[in-house]
């Protein structure tokens, strides 16, 4: 089943209007929304051009995500969005962005962009160590924010981020685009409605081919790169070209569990209707010392929720993942003819539901054909099994960026709001703490710390480096 055959219901349907509408003007449909991009790399450019949403942008940036060229009708609605400002500490990134946004103002310091009263909203697509500071200062400056995930670098930043969003009454949407996928909303209805029976085990996986590059020696930063500003709150280190590689160093990320796992943790929360584990344990290894960086090559983490267990797996040595496919289905990240690199599996008593970014498949539980019930007696009558089904839809980022524009115009609370986002990123962060301590930990969600565990709680915050401690925490 394809998206065009599926009953389309916006994941934002039914969300009440943001109660702070009186605090911010509502943009008319014909009024241009002026957006600034902070972080002009690949992901920021992808987000910004999709958010601008001209036919040229949609085709140039996202065409490869559409299997038959039939765009969702919602993407054809006019946006009236201008990418009016570009900001990056690397002049070469700004120069590249100017090719698709030639009229945009340019800034080397995000604070100058935030001070520009002509800018209505910003996209924050920097490395993770900057997210908390930029979000808080953007809200203080009166800007609405589309914040890429992971939401924060350390768990202790979340409280201040939530407080800033709520106090300033800004529209903040997190870049967890699964929240705008119709099939994942439908999966949530199926699981929470009992269609696959009781679910007590969930598996999440991210498999891919070897990442990174060979180590290179330290050197002077290239002309046009403000290296100290790029590092910001992170520790001061000499420039190394490998550190610019996408999320290879733990100084600026939390590894695969945070980058790739974050999306799927959010979807597990949405589908299961639960968002707070009580126990966590983790193990991992880095075998390949011949690549630059220090993220784990392999990681397994187990999260115990009140009614189910979630197992997470990450691997960079093999991209096969779960394996097994439905003929004709498309899978996120697929390369060969058999691999299934990323996904989630919900194992119910009546059926198993496999979900990824581009679709889902339901496999009914096999019954009968074996011994009867206890003592050899026939089993009790079973309900009619769920029917085998599968469906595909398109990459959800184009709709997700559109929904941000819609939410800003209408002053509506996004489905992927700041609380939803911080809870998903927290899962990744506490999984790493369990790995670092080497112990099973008890998580206290109400206090946002580990229960009576001083050692583990020390990992919940990394002090900011001066002079980049622009926001105070705790």
Folded structure, characterized:
The protein has helices at 42-52, 55-62, 91-98, 110-114, 131-140, 158-168, 182-192, 227-231, 256-259, 261-272, 397-410, 418-437, 454-457, and strands spanning 33-38, 81-87, 105-107, 121-124, 144-147, 172-174, 199-207, 279-285, 298-304, 309-315, 342-348, 351-356, 359-364, 389-392, 441-444, 449-450. The protein is α/β, with parallel strands linked by helices. The strands form two sheets. A ten-stranded mixed β-sheet has the order 14-13-12-11-7-10-9-8-15-16. The protein has a six-stranded parallel β-sheet with strand order 3-2-1-4-5-6, with helices on both faces. A hairpin with a 4-residue loop joins strand 15 (441-444) and strand 16. Helix 5 (131-140) packs parallel to helix 6 and helix 10 (261-272) crosses helix 12 (418-437). It is globular and about 65 Å long. The model is unreliable at 2-23 and 369-376 (pLDDT under 50).
Evaluate the radius of gyration: 23 Å
How would you sum up the global shape? Answer: globular
Bin the strand percentage.
15-25%
Average pLDDT score? 89
Helical element count? 13
Summarize it.
The protein is α/β, with parallel strands linked by helices and 474 residues long. The protein has 13 helices and 16 strands. It is 26% helix and 18% strand.
